[in-house]
Amino acid sequence: MIRTLDARRGIDAVVTALERSPDAVAPEIHRTVDEILGAVRSRGDAALCEYTARLDGWSPAAAGELALAAADFETAERALAPDVRAALEYAADRIERYHAAAMPKSWRMTDEHGSVLGQEIRPLDRVGVYVPGGRAAYPSTVLMTVVPARVAGVREIVLVTPPGPGGRVEPVVLGAARIAGVTEGYRIGGAQAVAALAYGTALIRRVDKIVGPGNIYVALAKARVFGEVGIDMVAGPSEVVVVADASADPEWIAADMLAQAEHDPMARALLITDVDELIPRVAAALERQLTALPRRAIAAQALQANGALIRVDSLDEALALANRLAPEHLELLVAVPAALLPRVRHAGAVFMGGHTPEVVGDYVAGPNHVLPTAGTARFASPLGAEDFVKRSSVIEYSRGGLRAAAPHLRTLTRVEGLAGHGRAAALRLNRDGGKGE
Q1: What pLDDT, in 10s, does the model give residues 78-101?
Q2: Which of 26-30, 70-74, 200-204, 390-394 has the lowest mean pLDDT?
Q3: What is the pLDDT of residues 30-43, one digit of tens each?
Q4: Which residues are catalytic?
Q5: Containing domain of residue 260, as a range?
Q6: Which of 28, 37, 113, 176 is the most exposed place for a label (fewest CB within 10 A)?
Q7: What pTM, to 2 d.p., does this model score?
Q8: What is the dihedral of CA 197, 204, 147, 173, to 10 degrees?
Q9: How close are the terminal C-alpha atoms of the chain, in Å?
Q10: In sequence order, which residues have a C-beta less than 8 Å from that of residue 183 and are 6 or more positions away?
Q11: Given CA atoms 55, 56, 61, 65 in this order, what sign does their dihedral have?
Q12: Is residue 204 part of a domain?
């Protein structure tokens, strides 16, 4: 069911064996995305209604039916079962506290000439949040995308999610949106939702940034509209790498691997260990647990195509391999995880110790579950409050500071052949005669 690899023969060979086949998105998918983006840009709400009917099986009588009313959110929130409401509020509170602590700050510094330098942090005005839907409900994604935007001070947070039969949106999604702080919402999905957020229509005003996961059509559409608006990332299939030593429980390892594998046939679940006997024990646990998993067909396909149990010589080698893979989720199921953390260079999120299953990060821990995938943790970071703000540099020179800078300005403007640049500073110094501070 799942392959075994030996990194003791060389990490490079294992990395090569784990490489996915080149991403060959069918040309017709690219063409469809381009067609949808172009249609929404040119025909606006009429195109939204047409694609909603064609792709989601619901035909709104008018474009206005795509909008979710305030009453829709209020009704859904009131209808939440007490335990569901409690869970959503618990998660939302932890997400809010975490992102508030991580919120970037405005600051100032004063140099030796009395010149003031610094930065101002300002929230984006309007963001769009894409939440997958139609056949499933993802209230956790609502919380993870909306709460950080609210913490950052974004005034307008726009939810888009695909409609189900009859234009229905799962009440738990709307209830989560109300708790999280969504200010408006629409029953649209796919590339057409991305287009509406990026370009605007008569019904939907354009946003400054689009965040949230989606299928291949959503991912390609986000990539296409980047530049018109900001985006968070282009996410790929979910993945987990478990680094384990002799202290790790094979049943726990198997459960964590299956929790990723059940997402999607393209999901990746890997174990890296320096313990020989752990590999067959985890393989047996995977077989046992898989039989009781409702999504066992999906999980089995993912494990067979993208999973592996990998033997290494040492935990040092395990971390070297994990860093090469730069996984979305990295679990350190070892006796002393804190000793390994300084050696982790590339990971979207790191889960420390046996009592920190990756699933707590998916739902309630507080850090974001929108994470870089497919090795992009080499250069990318989790979604956070900082993704919903802009930094503006602040510069306030004193006359003394400008005098001190003047000879260097003259030199650099001369080198670059930009006389007007140099004159802009020289005029100020000439006017005040170079006197005063």
Answers
A1: 999 999 999 999 999 999 999 999
A2: 26-30
A3: 999 999 999 999 99
A4: 328-329
A5: 3-24+236-379
A6: 28
A7: 0.93
A8: -100
A9: 76
A10: 155, 156, 157, 158
A11: negative
A12: yes
